[in-house]
Amino acid sequence: MSVTIEHIRDAAAVIAGHVVRTPAVDSPRLAEATGCARLALKLESQQFTGSFKDRGAYNKLSSLTATEAKAGVIAMSAGNHAQGVAYHAQRLGIPATIVMPRGTPFTKVERTSAFGARVMLEGDGIDSAAVFARELAQREGLIFVHPYDDAKIVAGQGTIGLELMADWPDLDAVVVPIGGGGLIAGIATAVKALKPGIEVVGVEAALYPSMYEAVRGSNKPLAGGATIAEGIAVKSPGNLTRAIIKELVSDILLVDEDAIERAIQLLVESQKLVAEGAGAAGLAALLAHGARFKGRKVATVICGGNIDARMLSQVLMRGLVRDGRVITLRIEISDQPGVLAAVARAIGDSGGNIIEIHHQRMFYDLPVKRADVDAVIETRNAQHVREIVAKLEGAGFSCRLLSSRSIEEAK
C-alpha cells in the first residue's frame, strides 16, 4: 500500500505546530439522538481555515523542493482544499493559484482570496475545474496539488486518525465523510494499523455516490445536481484512495439532502457547533442509520465549518418549519373591523407568537366580504400547533396549515 502508518507518523511530525491539534469532544445529547453508547466529534472545523484540509496541504507543500516552491503551485477545489493550500502557501512564501467551480459559496472564494492566492472560477463542478487547472499547470509550469489523490495529502489527513486513537482508544467505529477519499483513506490507514478491530465507515451524499459505486466496480451514472454538501460532491474519486478504501473501509452509507440539513441543525442546537454540509454528513449517517451503530462507541469527523451564512440561516429556518416550531396558518375571516384583533388574541392566548401576518383579499374563490389571513407563527412544537388550531376553530375561525403535512399528521 502506498500510504502506511509510518508515513502518517512522519506527517504528524511535519505538521506539528503548524496546524491545530483539534479536540474530539464527547456529545452525550447527540449520542442519545443516534443511539450510540458514546459519540465523539472530531472538530476539524476548528482548524485555522475551518477544515481538515490544512493537514494535507501543509504536509504536501513542505515537501516541495526549492525549485518547485519557486515555480508555484496550483490546486482545484470547491473551497476547503483551496483555503488550506492558499493559507500554507502564503506562510511558506509559495505563489499559489486556485481554480474553483463557479458555484462555490462566496465565503470560500473570499477567504481563499484573502490568503493571497490567485483565484480563478472555472467549470460547473470540481471535475471540470480540475481539467482547467491541469491545463493551466502545464502552460505555466506550476506544481499541481491534488486535493486527495496524493500520498502526502492522504498521510497528512491520516494524522486525524492518530489523534483519535490517542484520545479515544476504546472506539468501536469511526464514521468519515467521503468526497475524493483522501480523508477516510488516511484515517482508515492510521486507525486500522493501531486497532485492527475498529470499523471504519464512509459517508457520501446520495447525489454523488462516486466512491460507493467505484469500489463496487459499477459504471452507474451519478444523479448529480445541487447539494448542500458541495465539499464532498465529487464525480471522480481518486485511484490511490479507492484502493485504500476498498481494503480498509467496511461500508459506505448514503445520505440524502434532508438528512444533511437535519444534521447541520442538530449540531447548532444540541452542540452549539457550526458545520458545513460535508462536515455534518457523518452525523447525518448516524441519524439515518441509527440501528447500525446502536450501543457502540463511535467517532465522526466534523470535517469543515465553512458554510455560507445565508445558507445556514435557511437551513435553521427550514428546520424550525420541519419541527413545527414555525408554521404558516391560513385563516378565513370576515373582512370587517375587529376580526383580525380577535384572531391575534386567540393565537396569543394559546401561547403562539405571531412573526408576520398578511391579508389575502384578492383570491377569486373568496366571497368579496371575506378574506384569508396568512399568519406566520412561532410555536413550541407540533402539539402546540394543534392547540393553536383548536383555539382558533373554537373561536369560529376556519384554518389550515400551509405545509406538506396536514394538522392531523403533525406530531
TrEMBL record:
Keyword Transferase: no
EC number, as in UniProt: 4.3.1.17, 4.3.1.19
Cofactor (UniProt): pyridoxal 5'-phosphate
The keyword Amino-acid biosynthesis is annotated on this UniProt entry: yes
Domain ACT: from-to ranges: 328-406
Catalytic activity from the UniProt record: L-serine = pyruvate + NH4(+)
InterPro entries (UniProt xref): ACT-like_dom_sf, ACT_dom, ACT_ThrD-II-like, Ser/Thr_Dehydratase, Ser/Thr_deHydtase_PyrdxlP-BS, Thr_deHydtase_catblc, TrpB-like_PALP, TrpB-like_PALP_sf
Pathway in which this enzyme or protein is active: Amino-acid biosynthesis; L-isoleucine biosynthesis; 2-oxobutanoate from L-threonine: step 1/1
Gene3D superfamilies in alphabetical order: 3.30.70.260, 3.40.50.1100
Gene Ontology molecular function: L-serine ammonia-lyase activity; pyridoxal phosphate binding; threonine deaminase activity
Biological processes annotated in GO: isoleucine biosynthetic process; L-serine catabolic process; L-threonine catabolic process
Protein function: Catalyzes the anaerobic formation of alpha-ketobutyrate and ammonia from threonine in a two-step reaction. The first step involved a dehydration of threonine and a production of enamine intermediates (aminocrotonate), which tautomerizes to its imine form (iminobutyrate). Both intermediates are unstable and short-lived. The second step is the nonenzymatic hydrolysis of the enamine/imine intermediates to form 2-ketobutyrate and free ammonia. In the low water environment of the cell, the second step is accelerated by RidA.
Family of this protein: Belongs to the serine/threonine dehydratase family.
Protein name: L-serine dehydratase
Organism: Hypericibacter terrae
